[in-house]
């Protein structure tokens, strides 16, 4: 495990370089970073994504991990470092999202996140559940001078560090990742991910049905449960593991057959690289599953569509997930 922690330390330095370059791009290239530059290895790449991807490629070329690594990176594809090594002989499989939340940060309106999950290499059979260490680094908006770094190693817990981005020093060491201990969603944030057109109707219907089953109709002028849409799976995970959200439901990938019945295509879904830091969430105490309530063991690749659910604690999970499954069946989604 010492070698794994050494690798994690090295990748934290990579994250720092990406964060600095991304924030400098926002300051100096605001007119170009939101331009679409290409697609193919995962999601669409915008100008700011290209900046981050180039740093990653050069970093691993200059700093190949001991034992070698298969690096699976949105935008870059799958590469082996050092290049003289076979993908079968590499010790590590590393899954990277250079910038999750691009659509927020390229307009400087909400933090994005740099994500990396590390697993021992089992080839294409390696899954998210095999990730033994992960790091998630915040790329804050320009007016924000502090940013967090989240790290976890399997069975060793999760850690939150706060940095002053002007001095590069760690500050506020007393802060920790503490999911909500609430046993209900009432007066808290519960998110049904619904960020893109094409499936908004059915996701909203599911949300209404689940919340009505749980709490009935709201009384006049009451709020009951709050929601918002953070266009970043990593951002949603951070909100969950830091106690701000109590539940996140992302069932977009389950809607493929529903869309086919309507002669419609499936909009953009979460992919494995978006969820490469779920180890941090589970080490902090959150419950992260696939939509059926099973282990999220999708392959560490760039193309698999992923549905996932996240609950702040086991009590909320056991109370709500059976109702969610019943409503998914009632709507013929599963």
Fold blueprint:
Blueprint: H1 2-28, E1 36-38, E2 45-46, H2 47-62, E3 69-73, E4 77-81, E5 92-100, H3 102-105, E6 112-120, E7 131-139, E8 146-153, E9 158-164, E10 169-171, E11 189-192, H4 200-215, H5 233-241, E12 245-250, H6 256-261, H7 278-284, E13 287-289, E14 308-311, H8 314-330
Parallel strand pairs: 3-5, 11-12
Antiparallel strand pairs: 1-2, 3-4, 5-6, 6-7, 7-8, 8-9, 9-10, 12-14, 13-14
Helix pairs in contact: 1-2, 4-8, 5-7
Outline the structure in words:
This protein is α+β, with helices and mostly antiparallel strands. 31% of the residues lie in helices and 23% in strands. The protein is built from 8 helices and 14 strands. Strand 3 and strand 4 form a beta hairpin.
Q: What would the average pLDDT be, to the nearest integer?
A: 92
Report the major sheet.
8 strands, mixed
Q: What would the principal axes of the Cα set say about the shape? A: globular
Specify the number of helices: 8
- Tally the beta strands: 14
Q: Helicity level, as a percent range?
A: 25-40%
* Strand order in the sheet with the most strands: 4-3-5-6-7-8-9-10
Pattern of helices and strands: HEEHEEEHEEEEEEHHEHHEEH
Separation of the first and last Cα atoms: 40 Å
Strand fraction equals: 15-25%
Task: Report Rg.
Answer: 20 Å
Structural class designation = alpha+beta
Poorly predicted runs are none
């Amino acid at each position: 495990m010492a070698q794994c922690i050494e690798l994690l330390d090295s990748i934290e330095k990579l994250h720092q370089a990406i964060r600095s370059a991304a924030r400098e791009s926002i300051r100096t290239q605001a007119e170009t970073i939101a331009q679409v530059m290409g697609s193919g290895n995962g999601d669409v790449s915008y100008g700011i994504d290209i900046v981050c991807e180039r740093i990653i490629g050069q970093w691993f070329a200059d700093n190949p991990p001991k034992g070698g690594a298969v690096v699976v990176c949105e935008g870059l594809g799958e590469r082996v470092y050092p290049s003289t090594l076979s993908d079968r002989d590499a010790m590590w499989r590393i899954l990277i999202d250079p910038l999750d939340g691009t659509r927020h940060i390229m307009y400087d309106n909400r933090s994005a996140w740099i994500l990396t999950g590390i697993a021992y290499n089992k080839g294409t059979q390696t899954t998210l559940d095999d990730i033994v260490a992960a790091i998630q680094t915040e790329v804050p908006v320009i007016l924000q001078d502090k940013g967090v770094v989240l790290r976890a190693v399997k069975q060793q817990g999760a850690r939150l560090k706060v940095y002053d981005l002007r001095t590069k020093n760690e500050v506020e060491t007393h802060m920790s990742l503490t999911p909500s201990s609430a046993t209900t969603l009432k007066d808290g944030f519960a998110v049904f991910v619904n960020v893109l057109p094409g499936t908004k109707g059915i996701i909203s219907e599911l949300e209404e049905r689940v919340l009505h089953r749980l709490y009935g109709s709201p009384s006049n002028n009451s709020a009951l449960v709050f929601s918002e849409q953070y266009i970043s799976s990593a951002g949603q995970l951070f909100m969950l593991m830091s106690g701000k959200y109590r539940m996140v439901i992302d069932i977009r990938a389950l809607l493929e057959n529903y869309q086919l019945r309507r002669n419609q295509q499936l909009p953009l879904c979460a992919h494995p690289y978006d969820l490469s830091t779920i180890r941090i969430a589970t080490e902090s105490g959150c419950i992260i599953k696939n939509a059926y309530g099973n282990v999220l063991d999708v392959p560490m690749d760039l193309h698999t569509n992923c549905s996932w659910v996240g609950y702040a604690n086991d009590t909320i999970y056991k109370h709500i997930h059976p109702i969610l499954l019943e409503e998914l069946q009632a709507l013929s989604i599963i």
